[in-house]
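seq as requested:
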Amino acid sequence: MELTRYVDELQHQLATAAAAGGDEARELAGRLTAPLDAAVRLVLLEALSTAADEITAELAPGAVDVRLRGRDPEFVVTPAPSARFEEAAAPPAEPARAAVFDADDVSTSRTTLRLPDQLKAQVEEAAAREGTSVNTWLVRAVAAALAPAATSRPPVRATSTSGRVTGWVR
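struct tokens:
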């Protein structure tokens, strides 16, 4: 997502507002434009991250992450782990059911979680393998564990024509 056009628009609006104040205000606005560039980008990134967190709460156990590429953010959508497996396997007999969330409640809560160092390291590795933050990985894991579909669905036999994937998956 290109932020430059939004930063430029804000700078234009600042210049337009300063023009009403005369030459001194216009000169001050010109001096403020460059330092405001970084601050505006930071505020926009914070707003985008908050929006991604709210969307992730609705998609859990899927996730939406905001990542920086240079100076511009990009959105990365990660489907739920079970959804990725089902896409690779044969079509399920019944449509997948999402975790039950209250659609009206988009608030989040901060929780302190104490993990043994070895388990924390494993969680960090798993999150890195999936290209997500530890927080996103934990939210998806908890949502998947609480999803009604996780306990009501019979195990699926995983097979592959190449012979490389075999086993049972719940």
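Residues 126 and 137 are 8 Å apart (CA to CA).
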